[in-house]
Design a protein that fits this description.
With 189 residues, this protein is an alpha/beta fold. The protein has 5 helices and 7 strands, in the order ββαβαββααβαβ. It has helices at residues 30-41, 56-68, 109-114, 127-142, 155-164, and strands at 2-7, 17-18, 49-52, 82-84, 99-100, 148-153, 184-188. The strands form 2 sheets. Strands 4-3-6-1-7 form a 5-stranded mixed beta sheet. The protein has a two-stranded antiparallel ribbon with strand order 2-5. It is globular and about 55 Å long.
């Protein structure tokens, strides 16, 4: 099955803000960024199914792209709905949500910086917990009669899915593969 993973566009929060599960607004540049993402998405169409994180920043991009898609021939090849799945939400950053990283006073922050691939955020998720959630979605998706799925989600979700697909290992270098806002990653599972 081909997966077309699309990261949401820029967000309307100050740079350096920790905003995993928080439903933050999109940036004022949303329409320009969404149009660019849609142009880059055209070579991967059509999709059998379209999934999205329920968080606004991913869902808005999915809705924009689905509304702008040209009709397919036959029409049955174009999905008629966006399936929202909470397992596609970004990593839960717990008590650190909506704080600037530079201003987080939690003594556990340094432990997380030292081993972010294993240490949980305070009252949030660890990467293994987060990965398990995303892998559960992908395990279920593999059971569906689908050849190509579009998945609108978050940077961390794209990293976890790429690890699942074997593109790179789950180590401290995994986040060096982070796709930019509005970016697209394609692979098969």
């Amino acid at each position: 099955m081909d997966l077309i993973m699309i990261r949401h566009t820029s967000v309307g929060v100050p740079r350096g803000t920790c905003y995993g599960w928080t439903d933050v607004p999109v940036a004022d540049t949303f329409l320009q960024e969404a149009a660019e993402t849609l142009r880059n998405l055209h070579p991967f169409m059509p999709f059998d199914r379209v999934y999205s994180s329920p968080l606004t920043r991913a869902r808005m991009l999915a809705e924009y792209c689905m509304e702008q898609l040209p009709p397919t021939n036959p029409p049955s090849r174009q999905p008629t709905e966006i399936i929202l799945d909470p397992r596609l939400k970004e990593m839960n950053m717990g008590d650190w949500e909506m704080q600037l990283f530079d201003e987080i006073g939690d003594p556990h922050l340094q432990e997380w910086y030292d081993d972010f691939m294993h240490q949980p955020t305070t009252n949030g998720e660890s990467f293994p917990q987060f990965y398990h959630r995303v892998a559960s979605f992908l395990d279920d998706l593999r059971q569906q009669p689908c050849h190509r799925a579009a998945i609108f989600a978050h940077g961390g979700v794209l990293i976890a899915a790429a690890i699942y697909a074997g593109l790179f290992p789950a180590d401290e270098h995994a986040f060096s593969h982070l796709v930019p806002y509005g970016g697209i990653q394609q692979f098969s599972i």
